[in-house]
Amino acid sequence: MEFYLPVSQGEWLAWTSAVITALIGLLMFLAPKITMRILRLQMEYGSSVASAGIRGNMAGFYLGLSLTCLIFAQPYLWFALGASWAFVALGRLISMLSEPTKSGFNWFALILEFLLSASPLVFAFGIVA
What is the CA radius of gyration of the chain? Predict the structure, then answer.
């Protein structure tokens, strides 16, 4: 098993999405309190459950999926990465439409999540080779 560097434009798009996802996961894993501030979440005073949730549920998923994509570089894995980000964006969009949460941060995050979704999907579907 070896680390694979992309060779085509489509591979670079998918690979970049996986690297950004891994960096987000690494931030969540190493600095859960900073992550909660960035995401505008609050932790109960003295509770370590929130940090464990950020590290385990969120960081573990982001790191596991992105590193698997980077190591194995298979079309179904790129599809899984893109579909995961698409559902993240869909959840944010539904929240923005149903609740008064149309802040600048939410618009920025929605655009970022859309780009992180589209990048591996256009490669997985063969739109960009």
Answer: 16
Neighbours of 113 (CB within 10 A): 20
> Cα separation of 29 and 104, whole Å?
25
| 109: in domain | yes
pLDDT digit string (tens) for 13-40? 999 999 999 999 999 999 998 998 888 8
Domain count, the chain: 1
Answer whether residue 120 is part of any domain: yes
pTM, two decimal places:
0.90
Place of tokens 């929130």: 50
Torsional sign, CA 68, 74, 80, 83: positive
pLDDT in tens, 68-90: 999 998 999 999 999 999 999 99
Please report whether residue 2 resides in a domain: no
Q: Is 116 exposed, middle or buried (0-12, 13-18, 19+ CB in 10 A)?
A: buried
